[in-house]
Amino acid sequence: MSDPPKAYGRFATFALGAIALLTGQMAALLALTAWFGNGIGGMPEFNGDGVAITLVIAASTPVEILLLVLFAQRVSERAAGYLGLVWPRRGEAVFGVGVIVVMIGVSNLVSWLAGRTLVTPFQVDIYTTARVAGWVLPLWVAVVAITPMGEELLFRGFLFRGWLKRPRDVWPVIFVTSALWAVIHLQYDWYVIVQVFAFGLALGWMRWATGSTLLTMLLHALINTEGMIETVIKADWLR
Asked: I need a surface site. Which of 35, 40, 148, 150 has the fewest CB within 10 A?
């Protein structure tokens, strides 16, 4: 009988994940300082600047991913397997897309019935400023492609793998990784953060059921694409 695959302990997993995240943010800070050329004090307000947000994502995510892959290689011969970078079955992908589409529809319906706007001011601001600067395409790439890769590799890849030790850990790990993922979305109010948490539960379950972080990246990209489409409609068509 072969030995079970090695994994980092829970504390080491959290610490290394935090190191990857913070190092990526430091790289983003350096990129912003170099781009705007005015030092930290001369940088724009991140919450509403689409160019700054795009630069942060483009600079931080590759560094974060590189570190996570290197950390995984230290404990596993197959970093891809450790991080869940395996292709899902076709049926799993179709089912996952169906679940996310239904969740988006229900979320939008609940928001409409509650009198909540479907598009936050943050989304409108970063899209509008990116459009004025000619950065709409880079913003789309950053939000729809790059962000899902980095966030899923950290939360549903590295952290999920390191914390899931026994079968009874499944739902606690799904809950905690979803909560941490929701918390980093502080640009939104509590209502949207709760929605992010709910989607995180679905993505975490998909990660566990299929073993595929590539699937959760795809589904995450679908969620962000729908959000960007709604933002374009709100900013360009319903002004």
From this structure: 40
Phi, then psi, of 234 in degrees rounded to 5: -65, -45
| 3-state SS class at 20 | helix
Q: What are phi and psi of 187, to 5 degrees?
A: -70, -10
Answer whether residue 85 is part of any domain: yes
In whole angstroms, what is the distance from residue 133 CA to residue 53 CA?
Answer: 13
* 233 CA to centre of own chain: 23
Whether 3 is in a domain gets the answer no
How far apart are alpha carbons 120 and 71 in whole angstroms?
A: 36
What is the pLDDT, as a whole number, of residue 81? 93
Q: For residue 105, what is the enclosing H or E element?
A: helix 90-113
Q: How far is CA 90 from CA 69, 109, 173, in A?
A: 26, 29, 26
pTM for this entry: 0.93
CA gap 72, 121 in Å, rounded: 38
Identity at 208, one-letter amino acid code: W
Q: Tokens at residue 103, please?
A: 């969740």
Whether residue 59 lies inside any domain: the answer is yes
Whole-number percent of the chain with pLDDT over 70: 93
Asked if pLDDT for residue 2 goes beyond 50, the answer is no
Q: Do the Cβ atoms of 158 and 71 come closer than 8 Å?
A: yes
The confidence band for 180, taking pLDDT boundaries of 50, 70 and 90, is: very high
What's the burial of 73, exposed, middle or buried (CB within 10 Å: 0-12/13-18/19+)? middle
The average pLDDT across 5-17 equals 91
- Say how many domains are in the chain: 1
